[in-house]
Amino acid sequence: MVEPAQFKKIVVGVDGSDSSVQALLQAQALAVPLGATLEAVTCWEIPQLYDRYVVLQADDFRDSAEKVQQDALTRAFGNEVPRNVTARLIHGSPKSALIEESQSASMLVLGRRGHGRFAGHLFGSVSSSLVVHAHCPVLVVQLPDAGEASSA
Fold first, then answer.
1. Which residues have a Cβ under 8 Å from the Cβ of 40 and sit 6 or more positions away?
2. Which pLDDT score is estimated for 145?
3. What is the mean pLDDT of residues 84-107?
4. pLDDT value at position 115?
5. What are 99-126's pLDDT values in tens digits?
């Protein structure tokens, strides 16, 4: 068992989805009593296009990722982001970047994005890769199905 004094940083993968906003909230609920910092990490890449010319600049993709990240932080915490929360953008694939980040983290928290009733029961490719390859414990946060939420 990890002692609270050993928790230094909780890294949260933020992609703007409802589940990543919930992951921010769950991570903060853990970070506060443990005295840990929370780092919201959003990854961005330039899409691979084969037969098309890209007019957009790399900064356009970075700026878009930054907006997604800021929107998620606002949805999670309102206009006052807690003092223990920092945000960082990383150029690269989410799998590789978050595996790298997990080396210096006490915990990695991710939202799981399901697609439909059947597919929603399966981990996404990023979540499943990180559960297997991360260098720290991983918490995967799942939103309840709409049907489950309304029947509860």
1. 12, 14, 24, 69, 72, 73, 85, 86, 87, 88
2. 65
3. 94
4. 43
5. 999 999 999 999 987 443 433 334 467 8
Between CA 149 and CA 152 the distance in angstroms is 5
Residues 6+ apart with CB under 8 A from 53: none
pLDDT at 53 over 90: no
Amino acid at 52: R
Do 75 and 21 form a contact (C-beta atoms < 8 A)? yes
Crossing angle of helices 94-101 and 125-133, in 10° steps, is 30
The reply to whether the predicted model has a pTM over 0.85 is no
**Cβ neighbours for 106, distance < 8 A, ≥ 6 positions apart:** 2, 6, 7, 8, 9, 10, 36, 136, 137
Q: Record the tokens describing residue 7, joined without a space.
A: 């928790």
Hey, what domains does the chain have and what are their CATH numbers? 4-151 (3.40.50.620)
Residue 149 has pLDDT above 60, yes or no: no
Q: Find the DSSP H helices in the chain.
A: 18-34, 58-77, 94-101, 125-133, 146-151
